[in-house]
Amino acid sequence: MTLPNNSADGSSTSPSAKPKLLGRALFEKIGKPTKIVAPMVDQSELAWRILSRRYGATLAYTPMFHAKNFATSEKYRRDMWCDQDGCSRTDRPLVVQFCANDPDYLLEAAKLVQDKCDAVDLNLGCPQGIAKKGRYGSFLMEDWDLIHKLIRTLHENLDVPVTAKIRVFPEREKTLDYAKMVLDAGAQFLTVHGRLREQKGQQTGLADWDIIQYLRQNLPSDTVFFANGNILYPEDISRCMNKIHCDGVMSAEGNLYNPGVFNTEDAVDKDKTFPRVDKLLREYFEIVKSCEGSQASRIAMKSHFFKILRPFLPHHTDIRTNLASMNAKTSFDDWDEKVVKKVEQVVLEIFQQEDIDAKDVITTGETELWGGAYRQVPYWRCQPYFRPVNGVTGDKRVVESLKRSNDPDTADSQQDKKCKVDDVVASTS
What is the pLDDT of residue 111? Predict the structure, then answer.
């Protein structure tokens, strides 16, 4: 393996058509982003990126695109990408993410978007069954030669830089060697999701900030380095950056259930940090309507509605029934009349109550063993989701598991502690 052929000023001298900014120079050019919308399958599409930027996100990734399908299927491209994606006024800086196991298809796909983005990212973290079946994402973690070739092909032939997002191995040293290989191949940003490939769904577990910190401390100091995992509230972003000394923090599930998670500038304003579901829903709905050419935004709308309204719908099952009947072909008028306006009417009535000032209060709990504190948030406001397993929500499992792992009478070894912590669920990314 050879090192990337970079010039002293941070620009590439590769065979690509024109010099391109790399590494730290690229990071500075796009504004040194610290709050990043993660790439998510069918969830970080155009309308959601626009909304997230309004609430503080400073960089966004597209959903994970399948490189071969993007390169060969016009219908797939039309469903996933439109002229408004990568718009210089509303959708930058932007990184387009692909999953792939074939360098030629990856390059062909990337060339189709390179003039509408700031970088192209290789997904090396997807842990889902479809990734195992298709042999991409985290299921390439054992094939370092292929990963190196995929990244190097883009690095040497694309007009924009290549970046990568990885998961970790159980062994720190192996993970460090893995990260070094990815950087050696030509990746200009490295995003580390501090979970194992096996940590997904109900087995998600708490992301390991310690191993992310270890990588940050042992990789070259000029590496542009993003951390991913365990972001529930805005203050978790600064807590993560202070511990790991990373350049930015990426959020997936935390952002999906509450875009206000990125509002670090005015965190005391509950309307920005924990937006009212009626206000956020209307704002997002109007954005989708404005993204006329984005089929992906229209398809994703129902899923986003359910996530925005997650704490609200159990209290208003009639609206949940209406929402369940919607689909991508339902007219915007029906969406408005049967869901959006009904939510607005319910929340309006809530805020007309005489004691609303006493009810519309967000309380902060004590600092927990994991370093942050949980919030009690009224159901008419967006808030984190704690996935239940066997009837016990993730926030309660985090606390109880960490208590056990710190009790010498219940944990015989460091490995026991690690196993117990791996049983808990915080946010997924």
Answer: 98
Phi, psi of 119 (to 5 degrees): -165, 165
DSSP 8-state secondary structure symbol assigned to residue 115: G
Angle between helices 295-308 and 317-324 in degrees, nearest 10: 160
Angle at 39 between CA 235 and CA 143, to 5 degrees: 115
Rg of the chain over all Cα atoms, to the nearest angstrom = 22
pTM: 0.86
The model's pLDDT over 110-145, given as tens digits with 9 standing for 90+, comes to 999 999 999 999 999 776 667 778 777 778 888 999
Of residues 247, 205, 224, 263, the one with CA closest to residue 418 = 205
In tens, the pLDDT along 376-414 reads: 999 999 999 876 554 455 555 555 555 555 555 544 444
Q: Which residues contact 58 (CB under 8 A, 6 or more apart)?
A: 31, 33, 34, 35, 36, 93, 248, 262
- pLDDT for 406 equals 56
**Cβ atoms of residues 158 and 111 within 8 Å:** yes
- CATH architecture, domain defined by 23-269: Alpha-Beta Barrel (3.20)
Other CB atoms within a 10 A radius of the CB of residue 99 amount to 29
Q: How far is CA 329 from CA 101, 197, 210, 310, 367, in A?
A: 34, 36, 46, 23, 46
Q: What is the DSSP string of 218-278?
A: HS-TT-EEEEES---SHHHHHHHHHHH--SEEEESHHHHH-GGGG--SSTT-HHHHS-BHH
**What distance in Å separates the CA atoms of residue 32 and residue 9, rounded to the nearest whole number?**
17
Nearest by Cα to 126 from 216, 248, 43 = 43
* Element at 324 (helix H, strand E): helix 317-324
Write out the H or E segment, with its range, that includes residue 98.
Answer: strand 94-99
Which of 117, 126, 240, 246 is flagged as catalytic?
A: 126
* Catalytic site includes residue 126: yes
What's the first-to-final CA gap in the chain, in angstroms?
31
**Residue ranges of the chain with per-residue pLDDT less than 50:** 1-9, 13-16, 202-203, 390-391, 410-429
Question: Which ranges of 38-141 does DSSP label H, i.e. alpha helix?
Answer: 46-54, 67-72, 74-80, 103-111, 129-134
Written as one string, the DSSP assignment of 183-231 is HHHT-SEEEEE-S-TT--GGG-----HHHHHHHHHHS-TT-EEEEES--
**What does DSSP assign to residue 381?**
B
Q: Would strands 248-251 and 224-228 be described as parallel, antiparallel, or unpaired?
A: parallel
CA distance 122 to 203: 24
